[in-house]
Amino acid sequence: MAAPEMFEVQKDIKSGKLRRAYLLFGEEQYLVHFFRNRLVKACMGKSIDELRGDMNFFRFSGKDVTVDAFSDAALTMPFFAERRMIVIEGAELFTRANDDLLNLLKNLPESTLIVFLEDKPDKRLTTFKEVSRIGLVEEFSLQSDERLTSFIVHRAQDAGLNITQAAVRTIMDDTGRDMFAIASEMDKLTAYCMDKNVIEKTDVDNLCHVTVQDRVFDMIGFLANRQQKEALKLYYDLLELREPPLKILALMAKQFRILIAVKDLMNHGMSSEQIGQKMEFKGRDAKAQAYVARKYETQAKQFSSEELKNALRDAAEYDRLFKSGGISDRMAVELLLIRYSGKED
Question: 205: part of which helix (H) or strand (E)?
């Protein structure tokens, strides 16, 4: 399989020809943060953590950040260095017209590199177009199977390991294809398989997602029955097992997506056998697929379509809040559990 084409920001980093401004955004926040870190390393020669207190590196985050907060730093020449760098995360500066930002971008010196991390910028804005003119705008959508496969294979190879195709597919299916969750699982698997030269499906089954996915399914069941105490206990049990909260959140989102689809198929009069085949549930035969479909049907009946869609939106929102520094990853899951147990305070 040919390697996927490089991202534009990846090409800049590889060539060493960095632009004055970057706007990184999109659904796949793992890549947004990954390339933020790569740009910092390429420009400053150190990681973000190593740059604390550096007179040529500035970092701002949150919706309260204004252009005034970083304009002086952006327009000032670097202190005994070739460049200075500014990273601005989750400020939502590209959601409405902003003359101050536009003027700053038009006067940005060659010695300054500024990186914006946004959620959903408005592509119609003049500021958006100005970043495109003087720098690079890159959107990171949810990744294709080809890219995710390449990501997993390279994570294994970096640890000196091979990985079977079955193991790759199992990891993708049961992490909800969330790259934060995939990275977490690969960290565990590479450590677990260090004494051998290959990661196999049995390793994934033994170490990672199977028990977690089953428990997340049960957790959604507790939500459906408004059993808040039981849902939270199950969550805290998973934390005791050192399962990453973001992985749990990704699996919950995946379950909600499945339930929405199942409920829609039920409303169209499909049988369990038809739903199982349509959804391509895991199973050796149609009977096994129908069995899995019936389990999802039972849960789907306990939610309204509106509840499921709201739950999926809230899962994405809590994930965004964590990645922008608004809440902890643990709280992101807790908020979702409390809200949909029917006992929100």
Answer: helix 201-207
Instruction: Please say which residue of 119, 139, 159 terminates a domain.
Output: 139
In a domain, 13, yes or no: no
Q: How many helices (H) and strands (E) does the chain have?
A: 16, 7
CA distance 240 to 26: 32
Please give the order of strands across the beta sheet that includes 57-61. 57-61, 84-89, 112-118, 21-25, 136-139
Give the distance from CA 111 to its chain's centroid.
32
Give CA–CA dist 5/336, Å, rounded. 37
One domain, residues 280 and 305: yes
172-220: per-residue pLDDT in tens? 877 767 788 888 889 888 988 888 899 999 888 777 655 577 788 889 9
Q: Which domain holds residue 326?
A: 208-345
Q: Is 0.90 topped by the overall pTM?
A: no
Q: Are 73 and 86 in contact, with CB atoms under 8 Å apart?
A: yes
Flag whether 163 is in a domain. yes
Give the number of domains in the chain: 3
Q: What's the confidence (pLDDT) of residue 282?
A: 56
Q: What is the CATH number of the domain that holds 134?
A: 3.40.50.300
Q: What angle separates helix 209-224 from helix 286-300, to the nearest 10 degrees?
A: 40
CA atoms within 13 A on the CB side of 214: 4
3-state secondary structure of 61: strand
- Looking at the domain assignment, is residue 9 inside a domain? no
CATH number of the domain encompassing residue 339: 1.20.272.10
For the chain, the first-to-last Cα distance in angstroms comes to: 51
Checking if the pLDDT of 256 tops 50, the result is: yes
Give backbone dihedrals phi and psi of 333, rounded to 5 degrees, phi first. -75, -40
Which two three-digit tokens encode residue 36?
A: 């933020």
In a domain, 8, yes or no: no
- pLDDT single digits (tens) 263-296: 999 999 999 889 888 887 754 456 657 767 888 8
